[in-house]
Amino acid sequence: MKARIMKAFLEEIDDKGMKFTMDDLARRLGISKRTLYQNFSSKAEILDAIIDSTLVEFDEKTERIVSDPNLSLIEKIKGAITVVPKYHEFYDWKILEQMKKTYPEQWERVNAALNQWDALRELIEKGIREGLIVDQNVPFLIKVIVDATNSTLDRQFFLENSITVTEALDSIVDILLFGLVKKDMK
User: Fold this and answer.
1) pTM of the predicted structure, to 2 decimals
2) Could you tell me which residue ranges the HTH tetR-type domain spans (predicted)?
3) pLDDT, position 92
4) 3-state secondary structure labels for all residues of the chain
5) Is 149 part of a structural domain of the chain?
6) Residues 69 and 127 in one domain
7) Among 86-90, 131-135, 169-173, where is mean pLDDT lowest?
8) Domains held by the chain: number
9) What range does the domain containing 1 cover?
């Protein structure tokens, strides 16, 4: 039931932004408000559950990639950058801006997660040590990668240009890792 409520919560956000009520959510689900409150005490609690779910899933997927002995270091870096959580539609600038105003505690958690990437930092540092990645300032490299991947939060741009989040992330990684210049032009 909780997963169903979280999914409906995201649908309400997509339809109405953060301005919907628990009544709206119960109506969408076809359940009583009482049943809704038996599962979650507030919109903030549902929001926390969605954030927890996406962050745990993101960490688990990243850990599987990082610990996979069959992947090269470059494949691990690419895989870590392109992890997309189950509720990825939630990570949209429009939604995050509304969250910043109405649910600042939850927004702080999301914002911190969007700007902290320890597993990727460790992979890049290893790549530099092994001579696979150019020796650059690691915090700067992480900032460039984070800023580039966070550009996928502008869902409107990607919808207008018929690009999926996965396609965008793959292109971002290819550009960051391999550049814009064709190999035969270097």
Assistant:
1) 0.84
2) 1-58
3) 84
4) CHHHHHHHHHHHHHHHHHHCCHHHHHHHHCCCHHHHHHHCCCHHHHHHHHHHHHHHHHHHHHHHHHCCCCCCHHHHHHHHHCCCCCCHHHCCHHHHHHHHHHCHHHHHHHHHHHHCCHHHHHHHHHHHHCCCCCCCCHHHHHHHHHHHHHHHHCHHHHHHCCCCHHHHHHHHHHHHHHCCCCHHHC
5) yes
6) yes
7) 86-90
8) 2
9) 1-41
